[in-house]
Amino acid sequence: MDAVSVFSVISASASLAKTCVSVVKALHDLAETYKHAELAIFSISEDCEMVQLAWGHIETWAKTQAPLPTSTFVLDRLLRSVQSGQLIMSALEEDIATAQQMKPGIFRRRMNVIWNEKVFQDHQNRIRGQVAALTLLLEVIKLPQSDDRTDMLSVDRKVFEDADSSVMSIVPSRSSAIDGDDSSISTKTSIRSNALHWIPFSFDRDLFTSYVYKRNYRPPVSKLPTVRNSMQSLAIVPSAEDEGNLAPGLTTLRPRPVSHLRLESLSSAQIYYDRQGIPRTGDVGTGSQMDTALVRSVQRRDYNVAYVHLKYGADLAAIFADDAEIDLSDKVDVLGYLMQTDPALLHVVLLRMAYTAGKGWIKSLKFCVPVRRSWHISVSNFIKIWSSAERAGAFADTARSVEPIVDDIRSSSLTVLQLVCAHGNKAVLEYLIRVGHRPFSLSDPMGEPLSLCIMGHASNSTMEALMTLELSKSTYEDALRSFIVSMHSNLTHWSQTARLAHGWQPNWRFDLPIAEGLTQEEMEDVRMIDDVRMRDGRTLPFLHMAIYGIHKAGPPQERKKELLEWLIQDYRIQSYDMLGQYRLHVFFRITPLFLAALLGEHEMLMILLNKGFRHIVKDSPQLIWEQKGSLPLKNRRRVFAVLHEHYDMLKWNTVSLQWYNQLDAQLLVQ
User: Fold this and answer.
1) Which SUPFAM superfamilies does the record associate with it (predicted)?
2) Are 28 and 145 in the same domain?
3) Where a domain ends, among 333, 351, 369?
């Protein structure tokens, strides 16, 4: 960026930020005069403060960009935003000055005539368009590469187009300077672009704010998402399936237009929702300052500010808390604003609420949110978002239906974080982490979020999102043991029938026998063997469990490699490379290397060798090998090939060397 451009951006940003400060002060003074419009004025004031903050960040960024290259497209967008901001603030200052001069008289009728709600509503719509554009612009300039900035501006150009279209209600199209070629359209700063630009003149302000111009010029319909404070109607049309799930008496109601701004005027379906509440109050709100700011913005019906809070760290559940004191109509308006502004974020926060409140609560909430024609979303997308939330709610209901009911919620009921991990939903997990949810110590290791991630066979990216948090070593071990048990569908965490039938409790000392398919009698025999337990009370060392569990789960070879490498990255090798019992009723001590060989896992063998494991076996390898006689010949050959390739690296004793030679002879014959 050249020095002239840098200076232009810095000076213009500082000037606009200063203008915003004076406008905010003037608006506060105005609110003292027009008490009946105080909320509307304060709402405009907060939007101006957000614009001021954005220009302050842009000024700070521009001061550090002098030696760095910036694309013409990005610079062009910056200058256009500056020009738009100047014009919007100038027009607002004019109307504020006019309102300040016309003091309310002794007649109440005169005060109502003086305050022009429509004019200031138009100003607020334009300012909110600038807030959306500047928010995106701040994200763009934070990107490290100039090409990335240009690409992001191109993809999200509709945000800027909407903001520019709102400014056109002040600046008419005839003030654009155009010659014959699109590529020659330019601004006062000679920045070339394929978009229309206007050239400001010294008389623009007097012209565009004159009485004659305002009387004859009709501003275009703004494409910006707006939330009206006037009475709006909606119709509730439950489906046949939904009618069966409503409270008694609701199925006889006919759809009728009702107000969504007065709670006492709501339909019975909405009142049913309001009375039901959220069953999982422990998941509602983390008590952060961002949550408090979100609640206040919704109480003021300032949904643009609420949207920004939700995007950067507030939890939607905060507005549904018992102490939030927010009308149902305002909650519905927040969802409606998200529906037309950011459907992707709405999908995430609805899923988050579904995991907390369940399917019934989500379905009753859906009846309160109609599809309005003014929203830029198709009916199919509306149905898709809510259907996905209902499925998540059904998953939560199924999981919690078998949980024991005790006084301590943390030790019994599944939290929203646990359910999201079990369902493997990365987007909602990242949202929960962003708003402040964290795992806590549980008496039941199967409830660890990482355990549930693995049990739900979540993707690598989902587990990586959870791994950004600090987790203890025992969490990894409990997760792996959960993985082993989860291989059997009749022993999942919330399978109540299976628990009753098998008498199963999460005791890791007996998990491997269960996974190996031992009978109930054999398990009783296992409970009597105390002399084979490890020091931590578990049957086998963690690494043996990991190798065995990954093998039994049967993922693709590449997936097995990733899992084992991830689990042993900080593992310390002990004497004999961590010897452990093969099975409780077979007293043979084997190493992780030999266990991988028994299972025919050549990829695991390579990982262990690269980690530094060298010992094969200590006792009777041939007998154990014969017990695995069903191991396919193809796998035997691969295992032997790995052992043969690294023969000199391995540590052999007499018994293990004899086994190796016998294996070599068997494979040659076969």
Assistant:
1) Ankyrin repeat (SSF48403)
2) yes
3) 369
